[in-house]
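For homework, think about our next protein:
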Amino acid sequence: MIDAPQSFLAKDDPFNMADYKIKNWVKGTIWREMHFQGKTIAQIAKSESVGLSYVHRLIDQSFDVR
């Protein structure tokens, strides 16, 4: 989480969410870029030692900041 009390972050601030959600959003954004640069979902999943559906879900969620 950003080093600020929750009350200082606006409700519509995309970083006003749980740490794990921010981490997943960052992972999804990075993986989305890798995918757009030509890496397959399967290659990303294998290199990160995670499942295909997990990579796909986080990439999908990376399009929605809130």
Residues 28 and 59 are 4 Å apart (CA to CA). The helical segments are 19-36, 41-48, 52-62. Residues 18-62 form one domain. The mean pLDDT is 86.
